Amino acid sequence: MAHISAASDEYPEADRGFTDLRSKRSGALGSAVSWGAVAAGAVAAASLSLILLILGVGLGLSSVSPWARDGINAATFGVSTILWLSFTQLTASAMGGYLAGRLRTRCTSVTRPTASWHGPWPRWPPRPC
Question: Which pTM does this prediction carry?
């Protein structure tokens, strides 16, 4: 079996000093985004949105009547539908964002944010984790 050295013709970049950029990545250059937490928050938000949507359909169908002059009128039904859908989306988005924030990984390479504040605003742009 023939031995292939790193500086052979098959790997010309080995003798020119090229390195894999992924090996240079340290904690200070890495991403602060935890994609697993983002996915979990999105799934939770979609699930809560679906549950609240089904609840809203049940409440809406129970408020109307097939008989004339019974149940609520169309304007009240429209306003309540808009309010319920707004509540559903705001609640589901807030819960998904909260869950994604709680499941994220902590940044260990950055000092506490209060140490870099100058007045009532933080240092901008923020340092990556």
Answer: 0.60
Q: How far is CA 129 from CA 30, 32, 93, 108, 118, in A?
A: 6, 5, 25, 7, 20
Closest CA to 41 of 84, 88, 98: 98
Residue 69 banded pLDDT, cuts 50, 70, 90: confident
Phi, psi of 121 (to 5 degrees): -120, 150
Token look-up 């009240």 returns 76
pLDDT band at 34 (very low <50, low <70, confident <90, very high): confident
SS3 content of the chain, % helix, strand, coil (to 5): 55, 0, 45
